[in-house]
Amino acid sequence: MTPGSDQPVQSSVGLYGRLLAYVWPHWPRLAVSLVAMIVVAGATTGVAYLLKPVIDQIFIEEDETLLLLLPLGIIGMYLVKGVANYLETYLLSWIGQRAMRQLRDDLFARLLHMPLGFFSEHAAGTLISRLTYDVDQVERSITRGLSTLIKDTLTAVFLLGLVFYHDWQLALVSLIGLPLVIGPLARLTRKLRKSSRSSQLARASMTRVIEEGVVGNRVIKAFNGEDYEHARFHKESETHRKQNMRKAQATALSVPVMEIAAAICIALVIYYGGYRVMFGGDETTPGTFFSFLAALLMMYDPLKRLTKINPVIQQGLAAGERIFQMLDFHPEGNEGSRTLDRVRGELAFEDVWFEYEPGAPVLQGIDLEVPAGHVVALVGLSGAGKSTMVNLVPRFYRPDRGHIYLDGVDLGDLDLHFLRDQVAIVSQEVVLFNDTLAANIAYGRPDATREEVEEAARAAGVMEYVDRLEGGLDHVVGEGGARLSGGQRQRLAIARALLGDAPILILDEATSSLDPQSEKLVQRGLEQLMQDRTTLVIAHRLATIQRADAIAVMDSGRVVEQGSHAELLARGGIYAYLWETQFATPAEQSAETG
Ligand SMILES: Nc1ncnc2c1ncn2[C@@H]1O[C@H](COP(=O)(O)OP(=O)(O)OP(=O)(O)O)[C@@H](O)[C@H]1O
């Protein structure tokens, strides 16, 4: 059922390659930013180098020409560095943003064409976070990752070169101090990472409790669960506090530990370097020593950033892996290519089998004929397979065995787009987009004129409540249509289907009861909609069943009884049972039997 889900997790090389494919089209800019990074590293090292003539020639030898030239040189160096830094950051962001827009576009396009089964297997939140959070993580690892990896490595290497150039013996002595800095830093970083992971988990647990407190507030109230929920929240909130304190402790420790270790390192250098300046002859001048020290100190920042970049890159790669896994799912296939000039709307199911999970068939040999323009009501106990059966008509799923024909043509042979144009669906949950009423009605028919929209709205009974809304048909319905009542939403869905004017209608009647007035209006809209259309309706209302041309009774994935209301009642089978227990009011039952 889920093609693509068995994809192997890709290797890191493959992953890098695929990420690179998004960056590569921008290689000229990448090249310029690389050059800019080299310039930044060179300029930083240049500044450290200039300290030598500053001390030796200006302070000691009191050279007046250099007194003018060197300060200008420093300004020039920083100007060059500033321009290069700007270019590098700007260009990398440009590349990162372009690559991510492309990745997001590809992902969303793929998402829209996923088979329906994909959506029942993946939580909406997870999919949304792929497109938002995960893509951001990848972007961060590209821009920050590349910049740090290349620019900071180059800067550190150039500075190290300068240090060895000035005095290789002193350089070796200072390197002895390096483990002093790196050792504690590595330990602290590990601790920090662990505590930040625990803190994130604690926050997620806490958020879950908050969410349940908000979403499930009705139930909490009904069961007097406030104290229980509060205690649960307090516990999670306390865990969150403790984890955050651990993190804060590690963070607070990291600066002093680093600084003390660095101080020991510098003390070593000053002692040995000073000794060499005093007693070592000419090769180590005070200028060399200060330039050396400055280069050493300037290595601190790039090295620190390099030690921190790995988690960013790892997170980006993990996010990239999740993104590519989603991109690798197979989209819905459109094997068919046929279209029909005029669709009458005759539907026929022939020995149709279907299973969601292997070995558990939900439909087991459905046979059903729906002549053009007829209304067939599907009834049956919950889980009998009614929704599954109607979902096969717009090819949301495909039968595992058997065939479904539209006007004698196998659905599988039809072009998917064409097929879906022929089918209107009005389901229990009306999905509305956060747009105007008019735009919601015209969804799928962007070419519809205002008159057509109004006509559909009138026929569906939308006009009867539109006047009370600000802006009339141009009123924005709110997210998910939250500002409309259940009945109003249903009438809107009916208007949408009317405007679509497809020859086949699939109707999944709402089970939730509307007030009698709303019910009557919805019913009237539905009557309009079913007119001259082949209709398969999952019926929950008596009026619909009575209006149907035929009733198909489903049980355990089969059509077990077919006929008119009277015929089926007379048979005394499942339908008669459902009639007694679900559909009819006592008065109707006695009228029927009496
Ligand atoms: N996406 C799915 N994945 C796996 N199993 C599913 C899926 N959708 C439905 N089923 C299973 O298929 C069977 C038939 O479900 P279906 O929704 O078609 O029944 P129904 O007759 O429409 O029920 P109801 O009237 O309650 O909506 C049920 O056992 C259900 O658990």
UniProtKB/TrEMBL annotation:
* Subcellular compartments: Cell membrane
Q: Where are the transmembrane segments?
A: 30-51, 66-87, 171-189, 250-272
Gene3D superfamilies for this protein: ABC transporter type 1, transmembrane domain (1.20.1560.10), P-loop containing nucleotide triphosphate hydrolases (3.40.50.300)
| GO molecular function, a single term | ATP binding
State the superkingdom: Bacteria
How this chain sits in the membrane, per its record, is: Multi-pass membrane protein
Listed InterPro entries: AAA+_ATPase, ABC1_TM_dom, ABC1_TM_sf, ABC_transporter-like_ATP-bd, ABC_transporter-like_CS, ABC_transpr_lipidA, P-loop_NTPase, Type_1_exporter
Q: Which residues form the ABC transmembrane type-1 domain?
A: 31-315
Looking at the record, the residues that make up the ABC transporter domain are: 347-581
Record's GO cellular component terms: plasma membrane
Q: Which SMART domains match?
A: AAA
Name the UniProt key words of this record, in alphabetical order.
ATP-binding, Cell membrane, Lipid transport, Membrane, Nucleotide-binding, Translocase, Transmembrane, Transmembrane helix, Transport
PANTHER family recorded: ATP-BINDING CASSETTE SUB-FAMILY B MEMBER 10, MITOCHONDRIAL, ATP-DEPENDENT PERMEASE MDL1, MITOCHONDRIAL
Please give the NCBIfam families that the UniProt record associates with this protein. Answer: MsbA_lipidA (TIGR02203)
Q: What is this protein called?
A: ATP-binding cassette, subfamily B, MsbA
Which organism was this protein described from?
A: Thiohalorhabdus denitrificans
